[in-house]
Amino acid sequence: MPPSALDRLASLHIDYPMLFELRNSATERVSHCGVLEFIAEEGMIYMPYWMMENLLLQEGDIVRVKNVTLPKGTYVKLQPHTKDFLDISNPKAILETTLRNFSCLTTGDSIMVAYNNKKYYIDIIESKPSHAISIIETDCEVDFAPPLDYKEPERPVTSVPSSKAPAEGEAAPVEEPKFNPFTGSGRRLDGKPLKYQPPPVSSSTGSKEKQPAVSGGGGVQPSTGSTSQSSSRQSQGKLVFGSNANSSADPQKQKEVAKETKEVVKEEPKFQAFTGKKYSLKG
What we know:
By secondary structure, this protein is of the alpha+beta class. The protein is 22% helix and 17% strand. The strands form three sheets. Strands 6-7-4-9 form a four-stranded mixed beta sheet. It has a three-stranded antiparallel beta sheet with strand order 2-1-3, with helices on one face. Strands 5-8 form a two-stranded antiparallel ribbon. Strand 6 and strand 7 form a beta hairpin.
């Protein structure tokens, strides 16, 4: 402000600190500020550009300056223009440092905070106890509103209700495959086709009971003529080693073998090495 303003204020015995009301009569915009120095040219005042934007002033416009006394502020609510201000490491400390250069705040104004070669604009959306307050030597509570460009994250919409989702998941459990031994098709060693269809696989206990034991007699086995014994062995999924040449064996021996198979205990026989009958090459 010009030096003549200081002389006029000193003669009026005003209250300190000096606070002023700035009014743009053309747009009826009102703001409040303090004074830095009285070194301006006569008839002119200098103010920051962001303050001129609040009053909708251009260079050379007429502004009315009036000395006022403002109450000390107890509460102020701020709203940043961009959410970049909240990304600063400590925005509260930077704001406190910046507001030390301010003497008063007015509801509806926008202040500028310069930090790290960038300008951040903040709106004054609420102040107590009045729409214009003094912030010199006072404890003022500061609150923040969401930034102007802040958007809440959209929640994903689920098409299936949460109550029905676990019910459907339990309705179709994944079944683990069971182990079935000796499954598949059988083949004969002599290359002839099979004359029967393999029966379904029975349980393990039933298979043990139906398995006939082979006697340790000299490798002599029942001939293929006894269809009942051969079918029972093949139905259990075991391979029977033998040839059709045994069909010409002595019928007396076949009866002995048949008797031995009936008298064998149901349990599986233990392995015994080097057992059986001996034969002479001389005949």
